[in-house]
Predict the structure.
Amino acid sequence: MNEGSSLSFEPELARLSSIYGKMKTLVIKVGSAVLTASDGGVSGRALSMIAGEVAKQRSRGVSVVIVSSGAVAAGRKTLSLGRKPLSLALKQAAASVGQNRLMWSWEKALSRHKITAAQVLLSPYDVIERDRFTHLDRTFETLLSLGIVPVVNENDSVATEEIRFGDNDQLSAKVAAMVRAGFLLILSDVSALFTTDPRIDPFARRVAYVPAVTPDIRKMAGISRSGLGTGGMSSKVLAASDGALWGLPVGIVGGMKPKAIERFFLGKEGTLFDAKSVTRSSKKVWIGYFSRPSGSLVLDDGAVKAVKNGKTSLLLPGIVRAVGGFAKGDVVQLMAGDGQEIGKGITRLSAMDIEEKPLPGGVIVVHVNDMALMEYPNDQKEVRSC
Ligand code: GLU
């Protein structure tokens, strides 16, 4: 296989143990296929297995956030809707009924270990809008500081095709970014990324370690599919490449058997999609990955170089032009002359100020503290570690 990188069939045990030892917050994503019993309802057995593992992590001081699918599946069962395709309204109704069941099941499973569960239902605008993001961030922080395990799902009863996170693999990567988790572990009905589909190819090999998600890895993920759930393997790999952007290593492991977390970190099963660990402030996570820019600033070469070191604010003379009608306080993209995005930042001047008003040259347009770069220089470590 020519990956142009050190993709490996052997687990990187030292890396796994380093992540395990260092992580302070772990996000576990549990897919519908793992949670759903053969009769279509929520599987008490699966939940109790996972709750036991969550308790183990909690007892060694690791905060845990669960991203749980299964609301629609549980609602289908309760409303006897079978497996037929549902209208959006029926799907939303099923999710409303099922979410309740799902939460009740989590609460029961976790309370056996004296763990309190909290429900958090999210819609995209909860993370896009700065105020809502800030409140959400504080809610997560408070829940975790109280030793509570948040159980997160998309707010399916209001989600439409256009306005939704996509699937819970994507949602879990976003939640992990928000809580600045040290690791995201996806519990799935497939145990790892394989070179080909293991159900039809006896020579399919488990890829144990992926240093970076390359186009070849994406291709492989398209071949090695998950049978159930909305996402499939390609969506898990997408979540992993999203995660890598914000310094989050991501793992996939089979969630149907006991001790999934243990099996994964001992390297016995699963795939580790590695990422260079970077820790960022909540504000920079929001600017970099959740905000919607209202325009862009094109920088000259000198400014690009200066800004890329991660220690310098963007000054007015470094701007070649402002694009779009943005206002002071909006998020803008920072672009190089060749059209490459360098990062994003909150502008202190409107587009009109920049284009029309004569201003002193030394004026700061985007302060370094209000700037999130695409590639973080190694020395740009920030507050609140993973
Ligand atoms: N939010 C959906 C549910 O709870 C699941 C979406 C997904 O699995 O990606 O049924």
